[in-house]
Design brief:
Pfam families: Transglut_core. This protein has 2 domains: about 40-185, no CATH class; about 190-370, C8orf32 fold. Helix content is about 40%, strand content about 20%. It is built from 9 helices and 16 strands. It has helices at about 1-35, 40-60, 75-90, 120-135, 150-165, 215-225, 235-245, 260-265, 270-285; strands spanning about 40, 65, 70-75, 95, 115-120, 140-145, 150, 175-180, 195, 250, 270, 290-295, 305-315, 320-325, 345-355, 365-370. It has a 6-stranded antiparallel beta sheet, covered by helices on one side. Helix 2 (about 40-60) crosses helix 5 (about 150-165). The longest helix has about 35 residues, at about 1-35. The radius of gyration is 27 Å and the shape is elongated.
């Protein structure tokens, strides 16, 4: 019995020692963090260049900026860039204190911005940003300027461009051309290609199985596999879209050659067959989908420089018809980058597409809806 008591006492002592060591380690981490609350202006310049390149390429803001294995939210980095602009223009080379507990931007809004922004302008905007964030602990929705109200996202793009083009924050000027409807200002979405859902339009035809876009066991099985672990229609749609654009290689030819099933099996298809694949998988996942036909001027990919008839799809999510064009790797669900979205000619919106013998996409026969 005494031996058992001694063992229990020994175990308790060991647990107490482990607890003390753990507390000591936790304190060290806290203390180390307390000394890591500054960032150099040089690091902000580097981060700004990385941020600008990302936005310029993807036409959207990233979730964060990473510098030396440390992640900064967009709000934090907007503050750091603004401080760097102000300090560098008055030759203050000191490190910048990192802001914490920055809230998300509340309701960003603004105008289309097109014109030159001088270093004096950038400095003025940066001061306004710092003043607002110091008082509200969140980024401003917009900044007033002579070019109009510069929306939060466009402002981040402008400051990152300014700093990335300058090694000392004293660049003379930059040119900014960002539409209010630009993907940059709309979470990376090409909202100009979205359509509002009309309630009187029946969704039954947008969920039906067709010859070229069937909902048979083969399609259902693949759709289920691709959407495993997805909880919302948006997550399912993104999973399907990303698989299609990565696995169905684009080939140029007219009309429909393969349909959804064969295109999936041979991993290739033109814009019509690519759309068939998307339609069949979306509809098999109970996501209403329709075809869109337009004459588009291509600026990237295999069709670069061509103006031709083109087919893509729209999926209904949260009462909006969202664009989905899986023919180019740089496209995303809700975003198109391989053809000019502001100058295309809409030819029609359809629930299904049939094939005739003509080897010309313009002669495809459509089952057209009314809206």
């Amino acid at each position: 019995m005494n031996e058992l008591k001694d063992s229990i006492v020994l175990i308790l002592l060991l647990l107490f020692v482990v607890f003390l060591v753990g507390c000591s380690y936790a304190t060290d981490i806290t203390e180390n963090n307390s000394f890591n609350n500054e960032i150099s202006q040089n690091d902000v310049f580097k981060g700004s260049k990385s941020l600008y390149n990302y936005i310029n390429k993807n036409e959207k803001l990233p979730e964060y900026v990473e510098i030396s294995n440390r992640k900064y939210s967009m709000g934090q980095f907007m503050y750091l860039m603004s401080k760097t602009v102000i300090n560098s223009q008055k030759n203050d080379l000191n490190n910048i204190t990192i802001p914490y507990n920055i809230k998300s931007v509340k309701n960003p809004t603004g105008s289309s911005i097109n014109g030159e922004i001088s270093s004096k302008d950038i400095n003025s905007y940066s001061k306004a940003i710092i003043n607002y964030m110091d008082n509200n602990n969140r980024p401003p929705n917009y900044i007033k300027s002579r070019l109009g109200n510069i929306q939060y996202e466009t402002m981040i793009f402008a400051i990152s461009k300014f700093l990335s083009k300058s090694s000392n924050g004293k660049l003379a000027k930059i040119t900014i051309s960002v539409s209010r409807k630009s993907p940059i200002n709309n979470n990376g979405y090409t909202i100009g290609l979205f359509s509002k859902y009309i309630k009187r339009d029946s969704l039954k035809k947008y969920l039906s199985s067709t010859k070229n876009a069937p909902k048979d066991e083969f399609i259902k099985k693949l759709a289920k596999k691709l959407t495993k672990g997805c909880n919302t229609k948006l997550e399912k749609a993104e999973a399907i879209f990303n698989w299609v654009k990565s696995n169905i290689k684009y080939f140029r030819y007219g009309n429909t050659k393969y349909g959804a099933k064969k295109s999936i099996k041979i991993r290739k298809g033109n814009c019509v067959d690519n759309s068939h694949v998307l339609v069949s998988l979306f509809r098999a996942s109970n996501i209403p989908t329709r075809y869109v036909n337009g004459k588009c001027k291509f600026i990237k990919g295999d069709l670069d420089g061509s103006t031709v008839s083109h087919v893509w799809v729209q999926v209904l999510i949260n009462k909006k018809w969202i664009v989905a064009d899986g023919t180019y790797q740089g496209n995303r669900l809700g975003y198109v980058s391989n053809w000019k979205i502001n100058s295309y000619k809409l030819l029609g919106i359809y629930s299904c597409v049939y094939t005739n013998t003509a080897y010309n996409i313009n002669l495809i026969k459509y089952n057209r809806n009314n809206n």
